[in-house]
Amino acid sequence: MFSIGHSMTNSAGTADALSVERAVFPAGFKGMWHSHPAAQLIYPGRGVMMLETEAGCWVVPPHQACWLPSAENHRVQSSAGFEMLSVYCRGSVLSRLPAAPGVVAVSGLLRECIFALETAGPRSRRVSLAILFAQEVSVDSAPRLFVPQLHSSRLRKIEAALSREPGNDKPLSQWANELGATSRTLARAFEREANMTFTAYRKQARLRAALVRLAEGEPITNIALDLSFGSASNFIRMFRQATGFTPGKYFQNRSRQKS
């Protein structure tokens, strides 16, 4: 069994600790790139955040969290503002936690564990909470809306354009003409850098934008047409394929987690 103390070090000089910090960020917030010596579970208790790592970008609503190993470079942002709880993990507890970053489904049990860790308590209670926390954190337990980071100059231009205008319906052949490449060259570059086709990458970028707008209360039909899904029914179908839920059920799940 590992031990948890209120500080980073215990009497034996071992850094075994879980600590929780809460912060509120305004609409339009875009953080700087940074990292922490401790591993971190980032939980948006209210609102929807986007979390970027060097691998790519996750959209994280309040019934999910994002796990980051120690020293993982990242930044957070949100168009509508959000409240964030960060659980910093150090010491032997890390042996029970994931080694790779990813999205974590926040069960009611994990949520209450995070809240309980905010308050000071007896050492034995914090040991029990730490064990429970480690058991509940799994990066394989939640569907992901993940947009991979692109690296080559040509693909970065496409990435920037789709970030500004996710509904951009320009075919790959037109991008190739504008960027001085062939369609085949760009298609291979997407497979190599994103591990997906251009069409799949663009769909992920659109779904990322859609989730943020859904969280802000925008009507589904407006989102579907503006982001080039063709129709509300087509958007709902693609959203269900990506998340396992319709948009309505997805945010009902969020509301249950918050209650």
Q: Helical region count?
A: 9
Distance between the termini: 33 Å
Largest sheet: 5 strands, antiparallel
Shape: globular
Given the helix and strand composition, which structural class is it? alpha+beta
Helix content: 40-55%
CATH superfamily of the largest domain: Regulatory protein AraC
What is the CATH top level name of the largest domain? Mainly Beta
The string of secondary-structure elements, in order, is: EEEEEEEEEHHEHHHHHHH
The proportion of residues in beta strands is: 15-25%
Q: Nearest-angstrom radius of gyration?
A: 20 Å
Tell me which CATH architecture of the largest domain applies here.
Sandwich
Number of strands: 10
**pLDDT averaged residue by residue:** 84
Number of domains as seen in the coordinates: 2
CATH topology of the largest domain: Jelly Rolls
Strand order of the largest sheet: 1-8-3-6-9
Q: Which residues sit in consecutive blocks of at least 5 with pLDDT less than 50?
A: 1-16, 255-259
Explain what you see:
- This protein is an alpha+beta fold.
- The protein has 2 domains: 17-136, Regulatory protein AraC (Jelly Rolls, Sandwich); 149-258, Arc Repressor Mutant, subunit A.
- Helix content is 41%, strand content 21%.
- The protein contains 9 helices and 10 strands.
- The protein has helices at residues 108-118, 123-136, 153-164, 172-179, 183-194, 198-215, 220-226, 232-243, 247-258; strands at residues 17-25, 29-30, 39-46, 49-53, 56-60, 64-68, 74-78, 82-90, 102-105, 146-148.
- A 5-stranded antiparallel sheet has the order 1-8-3-6-9, with helices on one face.
- Strand 4 (49-53) and strand 5 form a beta hairpin.
- The longest helix is centred in the last third of the chain and has 18 residues, at 198-215.
- The two termini are 33 Å apart.
- The model is unreliable at 1-16 and 255-259 (pLDDT under 50).
